[in-house]
Amino acid sequence: MSKQEFFIRAGGQRIEVTEEVYLTYYRSKRRERYLDERDTVQGKVLYSNMDTDEMTGEDMLADLNATSVEDSVMQSLMTDELYKALDKLPEPERALIKALFFQGMTERQAAATFGLSQKGIHKRKIKILSTLRKILEN
Along the chain (138 residues), what's the average pLDDT of each consecutive run of 10 residues? Predict the structure, then answer.
């Protein structure tokens, strides 16, 4: 009795394989076909199906976590306005705001640096922020 031979196609050639390899290969091929058929029935589309010469299908989708150009421009304009408003403050007030908000000092650290109480720093900060708000509203 002759032994049955098993072949698979790879690279345009027939390659003899064991029965186990043959069965595993064709099971995986059939599974792949089944999944493709199921996706077609359910109307699913692969990003790779949208690939063009210029970009991939994934690149065509909006990144919901990305900052929009409009938001970046608005942030830049608001930052410019803030710096202009800060320039209108007297130097001691500007120094306090820069220490608290730009250098990351706590009110307690600023009190030690400026020789005032923490409560005094807090009151000045509130007053300066109110002044900045009025400058920015105009």
Answer: 82 91 92 90 80 80 79 92 93 95 94 95 96 91
Does one domain contain both 86 and 133? yes
Query: In this structure, is residue 51 part of a structural domain?
Result: no
Structural domain tally of the chain?
A: 2
- Strand, helix or coil for residue 7: strand
DSSP codes, 58-121 = GGGS--TTSPPHHHHHHHHHHHHHHHHHHHTS-HHHHHHHIIIIIS---HHHHHHHHTS-HHHH
Q: What is the pTM of this model?
A: 0.52
